[in-house]
Amino acid sequence: MIEILTAILAFIPAMIANSLAVVFGGGPPIDAGKKLGENRILGDGKTWRGLFGGGISAAIVGLVLYFLLRPFFPLYPSPLFYKTLMILFSLSFGSLLGDIGGSFVKRRRDLPRGENSPVLDRYDFVLGAFLLTSLTRPDWMIRTYFEGNGWIGTLIIILGIPLLHRGVNIIGYKMGLKEEPW
Ligand code: CTP
Ligand code: MG
User: Fold this and answer.
1) How many domains does the chain have?
2) Which of 120, 96, 80 is CA-nearest to residue 24?
3) Model confidence pLDDT, tens digit, residues 72-84
4) Which domain holds residue 152?
5) By CB atoms within 10 Å of each CB, which of 55, 63, 110, 126 scores lowest?
């Protein structure tokens, strides 16, 4: 049980990074308005402020959660603090880079900014977070998301994301933060 809970709670920085990017986003786009062929490389929806504002704030939320829960069970156990930070930043920035990768693919498929792309929108950030963290901290990744009952946490994340994604986007839309409810 504790392994499942750890796997899910540890993934929070990855899950909130994109919502926080909506809050902090705006300003100059990452692709600087440049095109690749007919379409923008990424589009106006991917900004530097969203990337760094979302990435840093999501890692900070994860850090606070880590300290709060540490007396009960450590989410990112490591004797070296910088390794805990590496996990947090990999999860949050991996999530945002995955989302940027998703936009890149959407533009290549002729989908304009904000267009709904169910599979990409839901899973690009999960893939990005898992990939980057697998590169920076493979040992933690395997222990948390594959070994023991951790894989059940992984499964719950994958199956639960569409629901969570839908819920958060509807809230963001109603709050006037997002232009579309997806
Ligand atoms: N956002 C941002 N920078 C990011 C990610 C998101 O500024 N790196 C902000 C933008 O204001 C964006 C909003 O969050 O419009 C919603 O994000 P998302 O749905 O990912 O972008 P879309 O506008 O839908 O664009 P795309 O079609 O490229 O996904
Ligand atoms: Mg969108």
Assistant:
1) 1
2) 96
3) 999 998 889 999 9
4) 2-174
5) 110
The answer as to whether 181 is a domain residue is: no
Give the ligand at the shortest distance from the Cα of 106. 1
Alpha-carbon span 62 to 16, nearest angstrom: 10
The reply to whether ligand 1 has any atom less than 6 angstroms from the CB of 13 is no
CB 117 within 8 A of CB 94: no
Best of 16, 19, 22 for a ligand 1 pocket test (most atoms within 8 Å of beta carbon): 22
Q: Is 22 in the pocket of ligand 1 (CB under 6 A)?
A: yes
Q: Choose the weakest-confidence range: 18-27, 53-62, 71-80.
A: 71-80
In whole angstroms, what is the distance from residue 28 CA to residue 49 CA? 8
* Residue 154: both structure tokens together: 């992984």
Q: Is the residue at 44 inside a domain?
A: yes
Look at the pTM and tell me if it is higher than 0.70. Answer: yes
Nearest listed ligand to the Cα of residue 99 = 1
CA distance linking residue 41 with residue 63, whole number of Å: 33
Residue 182 within a domain: no
